[in-house]
Amino acid sequence: MSITVTGTIQHRDIGTGAWALVTEEGVTYEILRGADKNLLKAGQKAKVTGKVREDVMTVAMIGPVLEVKSFEVTN
What we know:
This protein is mostly beta strands. 0% of the residues lie in helices and 52% in strands. It is built from no helices and 5 strands. The chain has strands spanning 2-12, 18-23, 28-31, 45-53, 65-73. The chain has a 5-stranded mixed barrel. The protein starts with a strand and ends with a strand.
C-alpha cells in the first residue's frame, strides 16, 4: 500500500547511520537504504510517497521502514 507523508529528514547516529523522516505529527519512519541522495539532507522538509515495508528489518529500528518511490522538497 502506498502512503504519502510530509516531514523533516533527519540523520541518526545509530550503528552505521540511518536516515529518517519525522512527520509533522511526530511519527518517525526509517528511510530504506538506497534512497535518492537529493532527499537525504538533514533538516530538509519533504513530501514523500512510498511503501511501508513490513518484510524488512534494520539495525537502527527507529520506526516503520519506508521505501521511497518519489519525493518533493518543500522548504
